[in-house]
Amino acid sequence: MSLPAVELSGISKRFGAVVANDGVDLVLRPGSVHAVMGENGAGKSTLMSIMFGMVRPDSGRIAVEGRPVDFSGPLDAIAAGLGMVHQHFRLFDEMTVAENVVYGAEPRRFGLFDRRAAAERVRELAERYGLDTDPGALVGSLSAGAKQRVEILKALHRDARILILDEPTAVLTPSEVTSLFSVIRRAADGGATVVLVTHKIHEVLSVSDEITVLRGGRVTGRFDTATASAQELVHAMTGREVHEVANPGTGTPGETVLEVEHLTVGAGATTVVSDVSLRVRAGEIVGIAGVSGNGQHDLVAAILGTQRPDSGRVRLLGRDVTAESVRTRRSHGLAVIPEDRRGEGSAIAMSITENIMLGHHRNPPIGAASGLGRGWMSLAAARTMATDLIQAYDVRTSGESLPVGALSGGNAQKVVVARELAHNAPLLIAEQPTQGVDVGAIEAIHGRLLDYRNSGGAILLVSHEISELMALADRILVMFSGAVVAEFDRQEATVELIGAALAGAGNAAQAQAAEQELQVPAV
Ligand SMILES: Nc1ncnc2c1ncn2[C@@H]1O[C@H](COP(=O)(O)OP(=O)(O)OP(=O)(O)O)[C@@H](O)[C@H]1O
């Protein structure tokens, strides 16, 4: 039996009162794909950061290919043969793919950077691992999936034999996920070891060989993927059964809350939203399906007011807000869960309470109506609100004063969702509301969104997860190349129909990937 590629023994790490890892043992077999799963805050990212030398454990040992190591930083880990692809890319947008890949380990000729050798190296690695890329392209112009391939190439260029991927599929479209998985398989078949952190059980079951589950910083399950079931994994992660919630399809929608008429954003060759009309009524969830980059985000931006449409109208509760500011639109009854929770959704240096307050400071009892006068707010009331929401949404934190940046990714997302739902606005725009969120929290957030609908709220839901749209939406619109190409009622929407709509839009690979995604349980 060959030596483990990596062996972690008794790893523990505390952050103040929080025990992020508690005596964790993990053995990675060479040439295998090992998935690490667990609820938000279970300690997965901390464990990966320890393995990659970014965080020092309080106790425990690490051995790479049988040799004990003591990393004092990522450079030591890289020298030992590890590579890591982070959730948030660390690339230079204004440099080319090749320059980014070789940065810090450049091929040289007569002491000078050898551009041609760099491009050649990228081409050679890309071909060996099946990574589709253009060495000369500027990284800033690439999609999330293409940027991720650059990160993978960076690790491979440094001869990484052990590749750590932290939630690599969160930003990918279904077809990009399919190609990433074939790259992972190819790397493992060539002898590399891949560690994959993800929340998505169907992904784990389709790509991994072994699975380790963490809960509360401890290992609660080890599985051979070939014999593991979705139910067992959910149980090891949450300690309970998780039931998928679904829209009952009952009730009659009320008045029109959002009306978009012939909206076009961009002109000519740069058109990103093309003549889109839709309406969302009170007590209704309208879903938008489609591959990211097909105009969904720009449509949302135009409805919100962060992007100016070239033509068309946006009406909120009958009032034309096309020329209004974001702030005015919000004050007329619009709440939003944005796609980019770190950039737009939250202020990571600010506390949970301060983040919860954003946009609520004019609301009683926190803002002007709290008897303190205009421009003042009651800190005590704000703290109470934050504490209540932390409890209601099961945000795993040591307290309301912690900066949002110190929360695990999924818990930071729960803060944004809690804040926006607390507005009780007539219209909620939710973009990827469960991105990076664990199965138990998905169940909870889905339940909240349905409560919102059932109590008369209107929701425009944009999601890459077709299973999420099928579970929640009363109607599903499919977007392709900026236009709405199909619309389905909840009763008539099926995997095949949505797949066909995507295929009809000229993207067979996407349709196939979407169907694959839909054929596995959503847990
Ligand atoms: N720098 C830090 N300071 C304080 N607490 C931290 C820090 N980093 C992590 N934590 C805490 O350690 C715990 C484990 O966090 P970690 O990010 O490892 O979880 P995770 O399993 O990766 O979660 P997610 O699925 O949400 O990304 C969480 O309670 C988190 O708040």
Automatic annotation (TrEMBL):
Superkingdom, taxonomy of origin: Bacteria
SMART domains: AAA
Key words of the record: ATP-binding, Cell membrane, Membrane, Nucleotide-binding, Repeat, Translocase, Transport
Membrane topology per record: Peripheral membrane protein
Record localization: Cell membrane
ABC transporter domain mapped to chain residues: 6-241, 258-506
Main localization, broad class: membrane
Keyword Iron: no
Record keyword Protein biosynthesis present: no
GO molecular function: ATP binding; ATP hydrolysis activity
GO cellular component: plasma membrane
Pfam families tied to this protein: ABC_tran
PANTHER family named in the record: CARBOHYDRATE TRANSPORT ATP-BINDING PROTEIN MG119-RELATED, GALACTOFURANOSE TRANSPORTER ATP-BINDING PROTEIN YTFR
Name of the featured protein: Heme ABC transporter ATP-binding protein
